[in-house]
Amino acid sequence: MSSTLAVLPLLSDSGSTLLVRMCGKTMTTVITRDGNLSIYRSAEMSNDAATLDAQSMLDEIFPAVAFYQDTSGGSPDRTLITGFGTREELFRRALAEELKNPVGTLADSEGALLLDKNAKDLMQHDLDALVGWMLNEG
Q1: What is the dihedral of CA 4, 41, 114, 86, to 10 degrees?
Q2: What count of Cα atoms within 13 Å lies in the side-chain half-sphere of residue 44?
Q3: 128-135 and 117-124 helices cross at what angle (nearest 10)?
Q4: Mean pLDDT in the chain?
Q5: pLDDT, tens digit, for every residue of 102-132?
Q6: Among 16, 40, 53, 82, which residue's Cβ finds the most Cβ atoms within 10 Å?
Q7: Domain spans of the chain?
Q8: CATH classification of 3-126 is 3.30.420.260, yes or no?
Q9: What is the pLDDT of residue 51?
Q10: 7 close to 112: Cβ distance less than 8 angstroms
Q11: In this structure, which long-range contacts are made by residues 91-94, counting pairs with CB atoms below 8 Å and at least 24 apart in sequence?
């Protein structure tokens, strides 16, 4: 079971959110709509975030985004990323340019802003799945 499912409580319950999450070499693409999981896609990438190129990330998420656009008639309202470490800004810019919607980090998301200091510290150390697990009363 992917740890990405644990972070779903951190996503907005209104509108649609695209989440792109790296954990090791695994990239997970999730789209939620009004708090419901619409798309879930997970793939083993050739590299981890430290050496992954932005085009490989875009190529991986494109099928999920295209399917969502075809079935919902629109694009996600917002995009969040996590797990990209020191290269986060590179991936944020690539996504914003390609998708033409706001791109932020999961740590700065609407749901994360409501967390207490300890949970926010965990988010800054890429322990978002643990925070999500705690929100699920795990």
Answers
A1: 80
A2: 0
A3: 150
A4: 89
A5: 899 888 887 787 788 888 888 877 788 888 8
A6: 82
A7: 3-126
A8: yes
A9: 93
A10: no
A11: 91/20, 91/49, 91/54, 91/57, 93/54, 94/54, 94/55, 94/57, 94/58
